[in-house]
């Protein structure tokens, strides 16, 4: 936007965005306003609108724009404008009153906070704000700014860098006594009438919480139990209406957050014993208030108390476990009873809050690996599992099954995961046995039975396969379950059988009746999906016993589409049957596999022959049949093919290919179908493993032709499979390099578009995976490839791409390329590989290192650094001396100051990073060094 628009035009555009019913006009206004926000004119326009105050929407747009510009574009402003901008913001905030929209107030407060963080000349800003606004009739804006200031300090979107963050944090610590005094004054002034002053008291508590969470208010300053703010928080939480003690939910939430934050800070400050005991004793006193919330069915308060008990337990957990013994337990262990009390709440949402506590406890006990210690905590986990079993009970009047997406079903899945993690404390067999006992209690209802079976299903895989007391009785009971039993009980029982597949594998005498039972279940509406899942598990686990049942399973698959099973369940059955083939003589595999594939190919061929329009999710969808074909080919595993023996899959692959080729041709413009088609080709090639070179040319030619026209990245992926399987064959590698050459022009054309790398991450991912496979399988030919330099330069650009999978493929390409100059030193081609890699790095090594450092600092997420570290390690191992110089020069190229004059990184800090990098001998230590570097810039 070259020229500054008038304020009236901007106000009209905002009005169009919010009020014009014409969607096209709204979209045009939105695009124009976004363009304005990115321009330098946005500063003055926002300022003028906020002074003019034309309407709510325009003021919100101006406030939000001001906040965004300060947060992301502060460098646009010269130093002499900083003070006037500050004064303008302070003036806006001074005009806020009870009638001002809260969303505008929040945006202005965040804008002022971000200005404080980046305006180095404004020190002790909180003191200035308190002095200016503490006598204002409306305190909320002051408290709001003081609240969001520490929060914005932790906001990585404000790229302050570690040095400035520490500088600001130190400044906040210097201001904390006066801030604490101000907050204390607010609490003292407004605590006498909490109901009328709910808003300001809740905001005061949140402000206190914000300062504590970043360490601006030290726990050392709070060791005195007379702290007014903390005492007020407990006063609010001590909810006893019969004694006249009551407060609103908003206050209770704010008080809970305050105390939970203190507990979290205590975990990192173990020497604050006075505060620790004070918090412990006061939280434990809240048990009565919790019971009152339960009696009043005030779930919001129950959740708050549950959070407090759970957070208290987590903060003490390490001490509880480390300082407990059979003779003497740690005093805080009683808090586990409080957490279990909350697990006993009638609503499962309250119980779910405690889940992380039990995960952490199980991890602590697993790491300690002490039988005596585990035995001590066994009663707690037994009570936990009993309570969870009760929570898993379905509603007694429920007539069917839980449906996908149901919140209660999701909760049960979380329960299952938790039980699997903690069950070692009580023993899987013991838990299984207890649930079986529960099933036999007189008068047990269907919903109680189903919940017990559900818990048994969660632990069944961990039951010792040789167990001979309970599992045989359970299996027999399930096999004899009456058809009149509630569908949910039968459904869970069937899934339980599938989870017992390892036990069944050790007790083959029950296999026949189990299979008969499950096959019958396939025809029952509601049970079919569970039966299919159970059959898949048993086929995979018991495949050495299943070969005699192949004919039955094949007959079942011939009529599978007449059964009430989902497409996913059918795929599961196909997977299971395909795994059985590994236990069949090779001579018998080919006809069976061919028939299994033919079941999927015949309907696919008809769709192509009759040119039937695809309908997603229906039998007329080619994806349905391609997915099934992939499931078969992926799970066929042929072992011990003798030298000279024809691979059992070869004839099947040669039979499949013409139909797949026709599918390629018919649906080449449909990316969804093409992706599934490529997946089928992938597993087709893998199943026969280097045994079908005769289809290479007939496969590559259409792939290249379709890629040039439609640029489906999945075709590049198939190319990488071909390279992986055949590039070690001297007769094939030339043709594969020609394929790569054909792929280059359309690929580079896409990636060289504006934002091409960002817009086509799948292409980046698949292209560099293809190149990496060439490096692995035919390194010398690839290192001599005429387009290597162009590919390398493209990879340098891709190093900045913040798409995880795409960036991993780029880094893998660099890693494997450098590795070829070092690995296999005894091989005949080592000297040539070493020379070729060395020549490439002499030309582009500095560019690579500088690019990687800049990618880490400015573009990549911190979780992506480990792959970059692998590349650095390869470079250091290849030549530590040369790479050290490249790293030094790369670090020197990084900016040392922000555009607003703030120091980002000192020479000493960069030197520390340099030394850490060049002295590293593991990718882990390099990752740590890179994280230290990026902290300076973010």
Summarize this structure briefly.
With 938 residues, this protein is mainly alpha-helical. Helix content is 71%, strand content 0%.
Helix and strand topology:
Blueprint: H1 7-19, H2 23-37, H3 42-52, H4 56-73, H5 79-94, H6 102-118, H7 125-133, H8 140-153, H9 162-190, H10 198-213, H11 228-237, H12 249-267, H13 273-284, H14 287-295, H15 299-322, H16 334-343, H17 348-352, H18 355-368, H19 371-391, H20 407-426, H21 428-439, H22 446-459, H23 471-479, H24 487-499, H25 501-506, H26 511-521, H27 528-541, H28 543-546, H29 550-558, H30 567-580, H31 586-609, H32 622-635, H33 650-666, H34 671-688, H35 696-710, H36 713-726, H37 730-751, H38 756-759, H39 761-777, H40 779-783, H41 788-798, H42 804-819, H43 830-858, H44 865-878, H45 880-892, H46 907-918, H47 923-937
List keywords for this structure.
938 residues
